[in-house]
Specification:
transcription regulation (chains A, B), WH-like_DNA-bd_sf (chains A, B), HTH_HxlR (chains A, B), DNA-binding, homodimer, three-stranded antiparallel sheet, Arc Repressor Mutant, subunit A
Amino acid sequence: MGLDKEKVENLKTTLEVVCGKWKGIILLELVGRTLRFNELKTELHEASHQTLIKQLKELEADGLIERKAYPVVPPKVEYSLTPYGRELESMLEDMVEWGMRHRSGEKQKEYS
Amino acid sequence: MGLDKEKVENLKTTLEVVCGKWKGIILLELVGRTLRFNELKTELHEASHQTLIKQLKELEADGLIERKAYPVVPPKVEYSLTPYGRELESMLEDMVEWGMRHRSGEKQKEYS
DNA sequence: CGGTATCCAACGTGATACTG
DNA sequence: CAGTATCACGTTGGATACCG
């Protein structure tokens, strides 16, 4: 046998939650602040309206973000991290940092 | 404006590298040890032969793992983390830990 | 034993159009 | 402004069969 099966399952769980095309980025955008739908859409200008909504719904269903709709017209909806989603912050930081090294190093023959 | 564009790009880079269906798990399996192809295949018994090879190739192309082929018959190939891939270890640990909390907490109304 | 080559099904993303 | 519905498309994962 090899690795603890539990660890693998736990990792899978996290990967499933974070690995939507824009999910990680949405979470990063929401670190330390609350954004309206339109603000998110502006930040993620590359993601389509439709896709953005789907990913938000999934993140909400997974308990990572909170959706707060104000009963006004025109509609106003705010998204923020749940306490639960905030527990991902350090991981996101790690990812950003590693990505930075990866991009600057690209062909890191420099390890020799 | 909002978040630093660089941070977003860095995060994207990391997500692309880690978000293959089995990539994260492969990396986790290789933490602290070297495995032959068949051993990996046994560990990841749910992944198909073909898929496993594809993911390994991509991880290799991204510089995360090293492939060492011995010119013997029958063939013997060993996979291990590069120094570069090892820099992901702490992130993987974070993911495992968060996944554990997520699975045990599922409906964490308990935050109140 | 480890890898390649096709081919295909499933899913996720995104475009468009319409609603409250 | 925010969301739903429908459909089209590309990418990915996987099945199968065959090489070194």
